[in-house]
Amino acid sequence: MSNNTVTMEKLVSLCKRRGFIYQSSEIYGGLSGAWDYGPLGVELKNRIRDFWWKEMTQLHDNIVGIDAAIMMHPKVWEASGHVANFSDPMVDCRQCKSRFRADHIDLAAACPVCGTKGSFTEPREFNLMFSTHMGPVKDDASVVYLRPETAQGIFVNFKNVTQTSRVKIPFGIAQVGKAFRNEVTTKNFIFRTLEFEQMEMQFFVKPGDEDAWFAYWKQSRIDYYSRLGIDKNKLRFHQHGETELAHYAKDAFDIEFFFPMGWQELEGIHSRTDFDLSRHQEFSGKEQNYLDPETNERYIPYVIETSAGLTRSVLMVLSDAYEEEALDGGDSRVVMHFHPDVAPVTAAVLPLVKKDGIAELSREIEQELRSDFNTFYDQSGAIGRRYRRMDEIGTPFCITVDYQSKDDKTVTLRFRDSMEQVRVPIADLTARIRQEIKAYKRVE
Ligand code: GAP
Predict the structure, then answer these.
(1) pLDDT digits 0-9 by tens, 148-180
(2) Residue of the nearest CA to atom 2 in ligand 1?
(3) Contact indicator for 173, 56 with CB cutoff of 8 Å
(4) Range of 364's domain?
(5) Residues near ligand 1 (Cβ within 6 A)
(6) Can you tell me the distance from the alpha carbon of 417 to that of 413, in angstroms, rounded to the nearest whole number?
(7) Is 85 among the domain residues?
């Protein structure tokens, strides 16, 4: 029997308690909309990033990666349309000075903070880009922006990549990195933050081929989440209506996930036409076209973009993995059903007793596993409690070492989801864990 009611409060509390995610600058009262990743959180985030990177670059022979600078020439953001268009309509309460997104509140109602009626200003456009100044002089000429999306780092390197690698259209360029937005509404933990990470891929295609590739990437991206072990029933598409389309998009679908606060965007798949490359050609004066080596045609490619939030994916993985499970005998456990490919710890080694060489043997086993897996060694406390700790941080495999291990060189391998235990020769452990990871299926 299980109770899968995951709430944001439960996740925030588990993340703090177990060292996944802390409030930023907590000792100073925190900074709203900013969060720090602790020892387990950074492992989880890095492993989700690596899973995506492998999916995009290693498992596709026509996608290469780059890592562009966060700060770019300010003209990039004029060309991309972000200076003119990347804004939200905002209203202020004249009474308490709180600021709200006009599309997030009922403008005819009272201010949700101070309760005053009729206190809202007219909506005004508020640009979401953070700006700073480069060099010692703080004037308009020295303004630089913190990138609000990683995509432009890819577009401005389109020519570099085609000239220096052997890619041919259709091909993609992938990038993972930080992006910054001066979001006014930042509730819901790490869902919407000022500083976040994106995993983006721009796929360059021949004009006319974009609809077929759009359909391909839509399917490929939703399938990816199943490979990551996410419950299919918590994923759906949402097509953007005319008023929702970003300034660069001709068509767009969001992949939405059922977060603790309801259905929300997780990833965007956008048909960006030749908007970005054409604009960069216009603003930079440098040609951004492609010469097809087979047909000798020259054209500016069209782009299909897949844009996923990495930090938002961490929230998705945490929400999807969480389970409160009632066990036989009135006991219960909190278990995180992370896919073993992204779990922060893959295998924990737990000696049943410390004496008679058992701890030393356990250390040896853990050392042996280290080169292949993220491991953890824990010899303190009752074994039941150690299992619960590992369940709560989502460790898929626990290895228990006992007196028998000394005699017959076997250990107990315990599976997190089923809690089943099997006896395995120490010499076979690495191969067995590998095999279990490959065969892993999420619990339904
Ligand atoms: N290059 C296209 C682009 O940036 P977007 O829909 O604005 O498109 C893509 O953002 C993804 O980035 C979103 O689906 C979300 O996962 C993530 N994202 C956007 N703003 C975010 C924020 N303030 N905090 C966390 N993640 C965010």
Answers:
(1) 999 999 999 999 999 999 899 999 999 999 999
(2) 307
(3) no
(4) 345-438
(5) 149, 151, 181, 183, 192-193, 196, 198, 200, 265-268, 305, 307-309, 311-312
(6) 12
(7) no
